[in-house]
Amino acid sequence: MQIRHATALLLDIFDLQERDRVVTFLTAEWGKKRGVARGSRAKYSRFAGQLQPLAKVEVSWFEKDGRDLVRISDVSLVRPAAALQETLEDILLTSYLADHMKEFAQEEEASERLFRLLDTTLEALLSGTDRHLAARYFEVWMLRLSGIFPVPRECPLCGRPYDGKAVFVESEAILACGRCGAGHRRLEVGAADLEFLVRSGRESLAQLEAAPPAPQVLSRIETLCGSIRRQFLQSELKSYRVMLDTLRAV
User: CATH top-level class for 2-80?
Assistant: First the structure.
């Protein structure tokens, strides 16, 4: 058995039996982990107030070879996340962000860039950054860091510049120029959309917020990222469907 310590982001927390909770958390050093916080549901538990969804914490845990779940021994808050659970929109969005990490991050695989992406996005949301801008920035970078969707610089089929617009060819999951995309089922990507994709690769969220894209651009980026994500996963994230259905109903 070995003990490990790390700074982590809590992705998911659910009750186990009468006294315990299972916690999924993301670390930069060891990727995604799942562990049991024994006694965390007890009235005077040492974990009381520490297990907040999307909180940043210092965590210690024991690992044993051959066990899927680690045993969490200590958790202390670094950055509370209660402010991200105050409105329905925030709860749905943060669940959606966490769902990406549960799907894409790997266990026992260093995830420093994924950790930094989620950490900076949550920090921006806590500081008041527009949630739609933050979500689109996160989606673009999530696909980029997963090696699915690089910064668009030129048509991957012919090598020519996009000349102000492009099309997403769904069958190939690529962003092609209009000529190469002709005759395929496709999604139009305009000049302003391309500009956002390029800017998101070289600017921080704070810089993007200083000169934000139009709401219509963010809406089209959401559609584009969703198409790419579904093409890669061959399914949709459950949290995204829940978010859309819930917001339509309210």
Answer: mainly beta
